[in-house]
Specification:
The chain has six helices and no strands. The protein has about 100 residues and is mainly alpha-helical.
Length: about 100
Amino acid sequence: LMALYLLEKQVDKIPALLPAYREVHKGSLPTLLEESLLVYQITHRENPIADLQISPATLQRFEAYTQVLRQYRNPEEAARMLYPNYGQTFWFHLNFNNLAN
């Protein structure tokens, strides 16, 4: 279900599923979930679960992603520049999956 929400960009629905997910899967979250929860935190200005921590590596990748993204006004050009390093991220999917290849 979480994968479907990621594909459909329904970030708002993911936090409700986290407690059950974390009960079954101990340890850190998969990278794509961390990336989507970071988007949730930024857009809602809140942490969806009190003890949830986004890894420093994901935070660093997001900072680098946004630095490159800010350099380009043209979405196609930004997508072309970001794809090699970030094409497999939730952020790239969120921003660019509607562009023709």
